[in-house]
Amino acid sequence: MNIENTQSQMRKGVLEFCILSIIKRGEVYPSDIIDEMKKANLNILEGTLYPLLTRLKNADLLTYRWVESSSGPPRKYFLLTEKGAAFYSELSATWNELANAVTTITHSNGQATNTEPMTNTDTNNFNQ
Known about the structure:
Elements: H1 3-24, H2 30-39, H3 46-58, E1 62-69, E2 72-80, H4 82-106, H5 120-127
Antiparallel strand pairs: 1-2
Helix pairs in contact: 1-4
């Protein structure tokens, strides 16, 4: 099994939630989203971000406004709509439930964790 593929899929699964979390704080320019994601070690390319922003806008979760720039073309700043804020709240609750469940499973007493290899006994118990 390819670990890089699994890691990539896990990151993609939280990408939308992370982007909405950034926008929830206030109006944001796409390059600021990219910078903040990089700081958190969740690198995202413009070719991934812009289609996602468009999809979220088309779903009425985001809106934008154009702001004139003294150093180039106008900039598009994104913000959550009321529908987007409600969606974010639901997504946040889902994330918290999921994170708690994963933590419970991966830190359960008497069970193998990501730092302990499974033994034959563990494998047999898993298959029952």
